[in-house]
Amino acid sequence: MSVTSTTDTSSTTSSSSTSSSSSSTNGTLNSTDFLQLFTKQLQYQNPMNPMDSSNFTSQLSQFASVEALTNIQSGVSTLNTYSNSLNNMMAANMIGKYVTMNDGTTGQITGISFSNGVSSLTLSDGTTAYMGNVKEISSTSSSSSSSSSSST
């Protein structure tokens, strides 16, 4: 006659439900969840047929890689936000200045618009130009500076 311990089964079920409830709140496993699962697998493995340690090592290194990539992505996102802020401040300081675009278009900047992290300049003739296409910025229009230089 074999006797099965109900205490071990209930403690396993209890700890498993605790692990899954902590990870299911946000739908992802964190490093603590992974280590708890790893520990439980080791604790309840069959001593006559132990699990392969290289498999655990592989899973642990993959988890560490994913966590590192997530941290890098978060850092890049933060840098992108700072870059967009600096670009927007620079664009706002350009209102009233005269620009020459890469295609030769010139005009005075009368407004700035921001959309999806891209700053667009509104010129005095109503055209819109991207900051990345600005070739030259000046305080005076190129036509007034060229006429004053030709009269001297």
Q: How would you portray this structure in words?
A:
The protein is an alpha+beta fold and 152 residues long. The protein folds into two domains: 8-45 and 52-85; 94-151, SH3 type barrels. It is built from four helices and five strands; from the N terminus they run H-H-H-E-E-E-E-E-H. It has helices at residues 6-24, 31-43, 53-93, 142-151; strands at 98-101, 106-115, 118-123, 128-130, 134-138. The protein has a five-stranded antiparallel beta sheet. It is rod-shaped and about 85 Å long. Residues 1-24 and 144-152 have low confidence and may be disordered.
Q: Secondary-structure blueprint of this entry?
A:
Layout: H1 6-24, H2 31-43, H3 53-93, E1 98-101, E2 106-115, E3 118-123, E4 128-130, E5 134-138, H4 142-151
Antiparallel strand pairs: 1-2, 1-5, 2-3, 3-4
Helix pairs in contact: 1-2
What's the short version?
By secondary structure, this protein is α+β, with helices and mostly antiparallel strands. 55% of the residues lie in helices and 18% in strands.
Please count the beta strands (DSSP E, at least 2 residues each). 5
Number of domains: 2
- Overall, the morphology is rod-shaped
**Helicity, as a percent range:** 40-55%
Mean pLDDT, as a whole number?
75
| Largest β sheet strand count, sense and barrel closure | 5 strands, antiparallel
Low confidence ranges:
1-24, 144-152
C-alpha end-to-end distance: 115 Å
User: In sequence order, what are the helices and strands, one letter per element?
Assistant: HHHEEEEEH
Features:
SH3 type barrels; alpha+beta; 4 helices; 152 residues; disordered C terminus; five-stranded antiparallel sheet; 2 domains
